[in-house]
Amino acid sequence: MALKILINGGKGRMGQAVADAAGQAGLAVGASVDVGDDIKAALATCDAIVDFSAAGATRTLLELALAQHKPVVLGTTGHSAEEKKKLLQLAAGIPCVWAGNFSIGVNLLFALTRRATAILGPDYDTEVIEMHHRFKKDAPSGTAARLLEIILEERKLGAEALRHGREGMTGARQPTEVGVHALRGGDVVGDHTVMFAALGERIELTHRASDRAIFARGALRAVEWVVNQPPGVYDMQDVLGLQ
Ligand code: NAD
Fold it and tell me: How many angstroms separate the alpha carbon of residue 34 from the centre of ligand 1?
């Protein structure tokens, strides 16, 4: 029998994309809930949760999933680092795939960024540029945040190395800086570029999403995978076997 998913944030752009993709992925939508709906009752009839809602909803969602032992695929972004740390402790009690980006192409970009950063080293000034539609509520995007985490890990730098925009900055760029720039406009689904610039050459790794169905398909692939995993927090690199 097809796995039954509960979609949280069902009326949103991603919630609808997940509902549209479910049939093709061989999954059934047991319930689709949004602000004000009784998620607790709906969850009892489903096998797993797919969440694309709002950062403020994550704690309650994880508590409900823990109480009912339901795996979660969590796509919502916009949590502060401190908030995320606490939420990860909760999520570890259930099988949970938490990914800032469920696209297969972007997950390859993550792997390529790690490799390029390691090979190129600190001589190559590294900047992350992202662009999203005018309605996006958080900045930088969860995907940009993950790219930055990877770069900082490989370069052994702390969060103080990040330069968001550069408003008011005086003086030359420091080799230990990692820049991040968020552009907003129109209906752009999601563009991410990691730029490595040295004296005499520049390398750019770019991913452009043109249809949010890619995130929905990735999230549904994560559902099929996570229902067979022990409790713990996983990401798309685990689902795709990229690490
Ligand atoms: P959206 O604004 O179109 O939809 C969000 C929906 O969630 C709305 O219908 C809203 O009413 C609902 N919602 C808000 N609070 C809720 C709550 N407490 N309980 C239930 N529903 C609630 O946004 P979107 O473009 O669909 O994106 C949703 C989230 O997913 C954002 O955080 C976005 O950044 C993220 N996102 C992640 C990925 C990924 O691959 N991880 C891809 C795209 C978007």
Answer: 10
User: Is there an atom of ligand 1 within 6 Å of 9 CB?
Assistant: yes
Residue 191, beta-bridge partner list:
131, 208
β-strand pairing of 201-209 with 190-198: antiparallel
- pLDDT tens per residue across span 52-102: 999 999 999 999 999 999 999 999 998 998 999 999 999 999 999 999 889
Whether residue 207 lies in the annotated active site:
no
Minimum CA distance residue for ligand 1 atom 8: 12
131 sits in which H/E element? strand 125-132
Segment 165-224, tens digit of pLDDT: 999 999 999 999 999 999 999 999 999 999 999 999 999 999 999 998 999 999 999 999
Range of the domain at 91: 4-98+212-239
Count structural domains, the chain. 2
How many Å separate Cα 225 from the centre of its chain? 17
- Same-domain check for residues 116 and 189: yes
Annotated active-site residue 192? The verdict is no
Q: What is the DSSP letter of 223?
A: H
